[in-house]
Design brief:
The protein is an alpha/beta fold. The chain has three domains: about 25 residues; about 120 residues, 3-Layer(aba) Sandwich (Rossmann fold); about 130 residues, 3-Layer(aba) Sandwich (Rossmann fold), CATH 3.40.50. It is built from eleven helices and ten strands. The strands form two sheets. Strands 5, 6, 7, 8, 9 and 10 form a six-stranded mixed beta sheet that branches. Strands 2-1-3-4 form a four-stranded parallel beta sheet, sandwiched between helices. The chain is globular, with a radius of gyration of 23 Å.
Length: about 290
């Protein structure tokens, strides 16, 4: 009888473990753990794979390139050209949208599909999104580990660069190739501004509370940056085209950064895609600004 009681106790304990595991999938967010996810936000797609939810991703956006596994997923369009018919055909139970895609968010919500909304912000906002996505996909521990690793990486950079002179930096993330037309740079808010500060630089437009600033050559001359850091994610860029694009800045020879040969072109979507590689991207900027510190 004692043996039977022990067996029954063990069986009940096993059942309770299974039940608790099932309940856990809905406990963190109050919603069932998604099993079919479509993401049209590159940063969130990358985060899903980084926190171990990649196997649940059944559709991705046009511009999703990282990690390489996204190449095996159906493409459903991007920010401006979403194929809603294809999204519905994939039978998702969770779709990750940009916050500006309100019409599409309403469509999936009306269809009874959960929507996760992403809005750009600063570094803290990116870390909060990682944790929120971890909770929504029942990967809290993995998401917390990822966010903490990024925080630790940024803190280590700040400590390494503490006490150094902070150059005045123009951080450019867009312009017309081969020219200085349609130049866009970071203002004093947003993740690029936060990354620049963590990398030991002072944003020349820190006083302007905007994420994106269109600039004329005259505005750049007035700003007189010590360093120009240009970010590009053009995968067609070769060593020769990189040299040619840096040379474009020679047209502003009166700018200290140009005169002192301190114009850097950094290649990769990790700089404009705030997510798991944010720490590495910030370190790359820091190495451009403070090469002797590494």
């Amino acid at each position: 009888m004692t043996v039977m009681n022990r067996r029954n106790t063990g069986f009940v304990a096993s059942v309770l473990l299974v039940v608790c595991a099932a309940l856990t999938s809905t406990f963190a967010s109050g919603q069932a753990r998604p099993e079919r996810i479509v993401s049209v936000v590159p940063a969130l797609t990358e985060t899903l794979f980084a926190i171990g939810a990649g196997d649940d991703v059944v559709g991705v956006g046009t511009f999703d390139t990282h990690p390489p596994e996204v190449a095996t997923r159906p493409r459903v369009g991007g920010l401006l050209d979403l194929d809603m018919e294809q999204i519905f055909a994939l039978r998702p139970d969770l779709v990750l949208f940009h916050g500006s895609q309100q019409d599409q968010i309403e469509q999936v919500t009306r269809a009874g599909i959960d929507a996760f909304t992403y809005v750009h912000g600063g570094v803290d906002d990116t870390l909060a999104v990682i944790r929120r996505l971890g909770a929504r996909t029942d990967r809290e521990a993995n998401a917390e580990r990822l966010a903490t690793n990024i925080e630790d990486h940024l803190a280590a950079l700040r400590n390494r660069l503490a006490g150094r002179n902070r150059p005045q930096v123009l951080l450019v993330f867009g312009r017309e190739p081969g020219s200085l037309r349609n130049v866009y740079a970071s203002g004093g808010t947003g993740f690029l501004h936060d990354m620049l500060e963590a990398a030991g630089g002072e944003n020349v437009f820190a006083e302007l509370p905007r994420e994106s600033l269109p600039l004329t050559s005259e505005a750049i001359l007035r700003a007189a940056p010590d360093v120009i850091v240009e970010l590009t994610y053009d995968e067609r860029m070769t060593t020769q085209t990189q040299v040619a694009e840096i040379a474009v800045w020679d047209r502003l020879s009166a700018v200290p950064a140009v005169r002192n040969r301190r114009v850097h072109l950094l290649l990769g979507n990790q700089f404009v895609q705030p997510g798991p590689r944010m720490g590495d991207a910030t370190e790359a900027i820091a190495r451009a600004l403070h090469p002797d510190a590494f």
